[in-house]
Amino acid sequence: MRARRRPSLSALAAILALCMPAGAETVSLRPAGDLVEELTERPRTVGLLLAGLHLGAARGSFRPDDIRLVVPEQLRGRPICLRLASRDGRYRALVPYVVAPDAIALPRLDFPSEHARQLARISAEDVAARIIASAHCDEGATGQVVAATIRGSEPRAGAPGSLTVLVNASDARVSVLLADGAGAPLSSVSPCAPIREGVTVVFTLRCNLPLPAAFPGGEAQLHLLIVDLTEGRSRRSFPVLLPPAAGQ
Asked: In the prediction, which pLDDT does 76 show?
């Protein structure tokens, strides 16, 4: 793994506050710490159950210069951690950022990878972006999960107001459900589709979850309903921060 030194999170936040002209909007976010990335022929098999959360459905080739963050109001001024990984596990990266208080609704995440050419050869649907609202940026970072968009994954290219949920669950059957903080369902249960072609190390299932038409955005719970042949039925829940549904 190679790392590049960046300013600390607190230093970057101070710079943003002092140097941003009045009335200006932040259209891109720079890394707020070390960019750590790995490109290998021997991928590690350890993965996360929830590998990625995207707004819309990815299309075309992956563009590392066009990763964008969906910014709900509750995320402004907070640190985040981007974990990016290819489905086959050959590429992984961890990058911290601080969301500027005046960031636009869909700012680009500056991603100065040393492997941009290799990444551009990957299909966008074979890349998982998992963004956590956390000051700690490592594989074990925990916190609210925030949706990203990658090339072609804006709502106009997929189902309007839908989420793509990328899951690593081996041979289990998984469905996804969105609920409010009290546990009341906000969506119907959507089954995930297994990926049957190619190498699946980072995620094995792709799920499409339509956002409810009246969803105002903000905090919610993403439930993964799992049926495993050996462990039976279980549920894993993740706190998420989401934008309003299209038209809200």
From this structure: 93
Structure token digits, residue 148 = 């990203």
Alpha carbon distance 165, 158 (integer Å): 13
In one-letter notation, the amino acid at residue 89 is G
The token pair that represents 241 in the structure block? 């921060």
Q: What pLDDT is attached to residue 5? A: 43
Question: Looking at the DSSP assignment, which residues form a beta bridge with residue 174?
Answer: 226
- pTM for the whole structure: 0.85
Nearest to 62 by CA among 47, 48, 52: 52
Residues in the chain, how many? 248
What does the alpha-carbon distance between residue 111 and residue 33 come to, in Å, rounded to a whole number? 12
What is the pLDDT averaged over residues 170-195? 92
Contacts of 175 (CB under 8 A, 6+ apart): 189, 190, 191, 192, 207, 224, 225
How far apart (Å, rounded) are the C-alpha atoms in residues 129 and 123?
Answer: 13
| Cβ partners under 8 Å of residue 50, min gap 6 | 130, 145, 165, 166, 167, 168, 222, 224, 236, 238
Distance, CA of 238 to CA of 46 (rounded, Å): 19
The three-point CA angle 129-132-136 to 5° equals 120
